[in-house]
Amino acid sequence: MAPTIVVLGGSFAGLQVAHRLLKHTRNTHKDIKVILVSRDSHFFWNLAAVRAVVPGVLKEEQYNLPIEPGFSKYPAENFEFIEGSAEAADLDARTVRVVTATGERSLSYDHLVLGTGSRYMDANSPWKANGSNEEVMASVRATQEKIRAAQHIVIAGAGATGVETAGEIRYEFKDKTVVLLSGNDQILGGDAIAGNAESELLKLGVQVRLNARVKGSQELPDEGAEGGKTEVVLENGEKILTDLYLPTMGVLPNTDYLPAKVLRDDKYVLADEFGRVQNAENVWAAGDILSQPKAGFMIADKQAAGVAKNIDLVLNGKKTTPVKLIPVDVFVCAVGRGRGAGRMGGIKVFSFMVYMIKVKTLGMQMMPGIVDGSSF
């Protein structure tokens, strides 16, 4: 009987695993069946979200492409695309319950790949694909309009998303006040490039507040002098009144459908060096659902390639091999559309190199090749 591989998640990891299995594994298993499940009909290039929310800079087709046409070259008997979300997984019975717009389906599998990634705590956040394509694009458009209308903007969370968002907004709108709040005494979690990135932010005119952790926020009633504004309360009791509050912290794994036995204490998936999920048979994982050694596009890319290779090896009765990650820790951060900060391992790289590596396009030129599989 044809081996069936169910791939959950239509983002960086899931798309790559599905294409690699169909392009390479199908050479030795002509009757292989790959079922790709994605709650978003489109691939949202969330690396560009920090620029996409700035009104008038990007077109939607630059960071948002339909998934299904990219798989049209494969025979129908080898591939199926399901727009829906995984609601429950019985890893002993090897079934996944998927909810679609027309109802529920129970999918049986020989191998299961977990690539459902992570989400921001704020359900309306535009930084990741947190729902259907309509919901994701609506969130991006709404944020664009809010940024357009605001004169004072507070961004909470000085990780890469917060730093890049602050830089993008201030680069485009020199007349807007942009305040970046860091809960620590350095931005970017104290990474070696924190000082360089902060210097670039200050050159753009971003106001950087350190040791300014947010306790809560509330939108004020429309009436009165402060109507329509948001009050941001810091842990030290200070209150900041702003036209627009953009939180960029609070990332959670999309693992609610999985049993506790395959999860770490932090709810991320527990997997070994082969990409195999622990305490389950023929279940694999790649990308931000693991966040090991950390979350990141380049890490997800390597994990997805390794998982696809190992599934192919298992189907051919061969031994699996450890997933090969990038040999050095690379971290590059855009700061506006002209400059950035970064390092390769412990060596800092010039801003111009960061511009060429990331800032210029935010990697959007790679998106078509990932969607249609021509990159793999």
From TrEMBL:
InterPro entries named in the record: FAD/NAD-bd_sf, FAD/NAD-binding_dom
Source domain of life: Eukaryota
Domain FAD/NAD(P)-binding: 4-293
Keyword Flavoprotein: yes
UniProt keyword list: FAD, Flavoprotein, Oxidoreductase
Pfam family, one: Pyr_redox_2
PANTHER family the record matches: APOPTOSIS-INDUCING FACTOR 1 (PTHR43735), FERROPTOSIS SUPPRESSOR PROTEIN 1 (PTHR43735:SF3)
Sequence similarity: Belongs to the FAD-dependent oxidoreductase family.
Listed name of the protein: FAD/NAD(P)-binding domain-containing protein
Natural source organism: Apiospora aurea
Source organism phylogeny: Eukaryota, Fungi, Dikarya, Ascomycota, Pezizomycotina
